[in-house]
Amino acid sequence: RRFYPNFSLFYKNGMRFFFFSLEENRMHIHIRQAEKKAKIWIEPSISLAENKGFSSTEISNILKEVQKHERIIREKWNNHRGSNND
After folding, report:
1. Could you give the CA distance from residue 74 to residue 86 in angstroms, rounded to a whole number?
2. What are phi and psi of 47, to 5 degrees?
3. Per-residue pLDDT tens digits for 5-15
4. Model confidence over 34-46: pLDDT tens digits?
5. Contacts within 8 Å (CB) and 24+ apart, 40-46
6. Where are the alpha helices (DSSP H) in the chain?
7. Within its chain, how far is the Cα of 45 from the centroid?
8. What is the pTM (predicted TM-score) of this model?
């Protein structure tokens, strides 16, 4: 497995919201809390890509947080990834 530097966006209720610098081009965000992890697509719309360990209630709350912070997530992604998004 290749190592990709990651970029933290924010923390909420002990969960870390971040993305990897050089992973895949489709806009998404990762969420981690202890051993639990999830991946949320931002494009074409906010949706669950994968979940390992979060309850359905937690996923619902995560999706709400991503929706709430969508503008800043998109800005940070585009500012950080810029030309890598081709």
Report:
1. 15
2. -160, 160
3. 677 888 898 99
4. 999 999 999 999 9
5. 40/66, 42/66, 42/70, 42/73, 42/74, 42/77, 46/70
6. 56-68, 70-81
7. 13
8. 0.84
